[in-house]
Write a structure and sequence with these properties.
Length: 243
Amino acid sequence: MRRSTQSTFIACLVACGVIFGGGGSATAAEVDPRDGALAQFRENLTASSDIAAFDELTRDQRSRLSSYLLGEIDPFAELSSEVARTPSGPPTSVSAGGFELTLGTRDTAVPKVAASTGSTTPSGQVSTLAGSTRSVSRSSSFSFLGITISKTTVRVVYYYSGSRATGIASSSCKVDVNYDPFSTVTSEREGAWISSGKATAECKVVVVRGIFSSWGVITWSTKAALQFVTANGYGTVTAYGWR
């Protein structure tokens, strides 16, 4: 992790009352780190619906959310693993303990006209079509009782002929939002290819979390998963999710 990210995280821990400077007079009894973490998270929220949902949380629900923010539990890893284990394709959403991982639609089968023919794709394939392309994408959002925590999107633009995808025009990965004050989320292109007449794009999503221990040591936890989307020549998404 870059030093600037570490510094930002440590500053957030201090502001939230999780750690204190040697010359300060604050004590753990005076400042509850859970309250500080929740306050920082609420401050990051931008949608009025998320803010309203946060304000309606019960004491027990706030306690569970703060356990996630402070790194005591890791529901995202559990839910993404559950999606990856689904044999017949990912469900619309999976949830546990109030946390939910939702796989949704951004857009589907958007036809476009490429600027030229015979272009070379990022994967090295050369398209010899008339230039028609389709664009499909899928987003994935992680939330707690309806409150958005993070959201990422994978997109692929590809050439097609009839029912078959024939070449990759481009692919992209995006972190739409991340409201978790104690983590950084990045999404980078892992690859895009054509196989059996279908186009696939993969994004490597990496979550780096700072976890504070009761004895004053911060450890950095890094976890990664692949977010993907696959579509045929008609623009129909045939598979998507995490692996």
